[in-house]
Amino acid sequence: MAARPYDRTSGPRELSEEPLERAGRGLPGGVELYRLQPDGGIVLADREGARELGPERDFLRFIDDGQFAHYLVGDAGTSPERPSNATVKLGVVGPRSAFTPHAHGGEHFVLSLGHAACGLYDPDRGRVTEVRLAPGMLIRIPEMMPHSFANRGDVPLTILAANTGYGIDHEDYAITAAEAEHRAEAGAAPTAGPSGPSRLASPVAVATTDYRVLAAALRDIERAQRVHGIPGTTVRERLAARLRRVAAALEVPR
């Protein structure tokens, strides 16, 4: 589902950059301080000052239009042939939006700082399983497991995502149903289904994937998205989000 354009001007500013700017002036050279705000904003401070990260110069496109990533470790060109062991990046997911279902060549860790949902294809049960995430929950997804990730809230969602071995420019970073079908038609090594857990990015797992099976699983997630839509937040979650914004404002050094 397409995300709304990144827009941080539609609501009140949750936290001022000024306290971070003061903190940044006292940092040693090369040290960066990030404030991940409860409304989805990200403020970066260093000895040069403080500024809110934005799509104009700080973010890369993150799988779909309207979704963004800011690398902390590695870069978009990371791959098994050009390794940095892992990539770690901040992602911003648009309000009430979801990524196109996909599978990664390496295992994937996502820390949600808001209200999210992850749709996963369970090959053992042959069905799509939905996992709802609250702020502070982290999910590990094995390599080549079909999945999607959605923002259940009405404000941008910040996530911290770590992938073993692949940056977003690599062809195996996010394999969609359309790409899997293309590979199946091209006769790309249909010898095994989506693989199980692994601690390293595995080019072998990608090479031995049955892309027809993978494409069918991804289409199942797409159908589940169309039928059920993006789940919303509960009254309790919305109340907790308001309290979290108040707490975050009180915790900022003055």
Helix count from the secondary structure assignment: 5
State mean pLDDT (0 to 100 scale). 80
Output the strand order for the largest sheet: 4-5-6-13-8-11
Could you say which structural class the secondary elements and strand pairing correspond to?
A: alpha+beta
Radius of gyration: 19 Å
The largest pleated sheet is described as: 6 strands, antiparallel
Terminal Cα span:
40 Å
N-to-C SSE string, H for helix and E for strand: HEEEEEEEEEEEEEEHHHH
The low-confidence parts are: 9-16, 190-200
- Our estimate of the beta-strand percent is 25-35%
Count the beta strands.
Answer: 14
How would you sum up the global shape?
A: globular
Q: Please estimate the helix content.
A: 10-25%
Fold and architecture overview:
Helix 2 runs antiparallel to helix 4. The protein has 5 helices and 14 strands. Residues 9-16 and 190-200 have low confidence and may be disordered. The chain has helices at 18-25, 177-185, 203-207, 211-228, 235-251; strands spanning 33-36, 42-46, 49-52, 60-62, 64-73, 86-93, 102-103, 108-112, 116-122, 127-133, 138-141, 147-151, 157-164, 175-176.
